[in-house]
Amino acid sequence: MPANPNIGRIINGNTHDSSSIIATINGKPYGDITEISYSDSLEPGILQGVGDPYIRARTRGQYKAEASFTIAKSTFELVKSELVALGAGGFGEATFPVTVVYRATVSDPVITDIVEGCRIMKVENSHSAGNSDALVVKVDLSVVRIRWNGFYAVADPGTSALIGL
Fold this sequence. Notes:
Blueprint: E1 21-25, E2 28-29, E3 33-43, E4 46-47, E5 57-58, E6 62-72, H1 73-88, E7 96-102, E8 111-125, E9 136-142, E10 145-148, E11 151-152
Antiparallel strand pairs: 1-2, 1-7, 3-6, 4-5, 6-9, 7-8, 8-9, 8-10, 10-11
């Protein structure tokens, strides 16, 4: 049984859309984020015997996480300044969390995902003539891990089976 029985329920016909998202960078909300994407994967290695069609065992695997966001160019200038102010040097050297909160209506449960240990890896500007939309910047992040509404895909090594060695 889930910890919160309301998670996964559609209340009064309402469900999440892009207007139900609040994204923060290092704790500060930015309404000018036009797109946000994050994912993680766990790719276990295998042990398979010669001539054996089945996997005999799996390793814990290698965990990988990635994220990116698109933000208004003018707002990204503020983000860069704030990251430099963290004191790590350049804005690409600062480590920060990205928090994404989902809530369709005030009566719905809040879903909070935290993309932990982010660093800017790539910044992309792509602008063309004839486009009257606001200029945006795509930012790719290096990510340590993602906490999916309180849960991790992989247990922290401090809480794994290695305890007691």
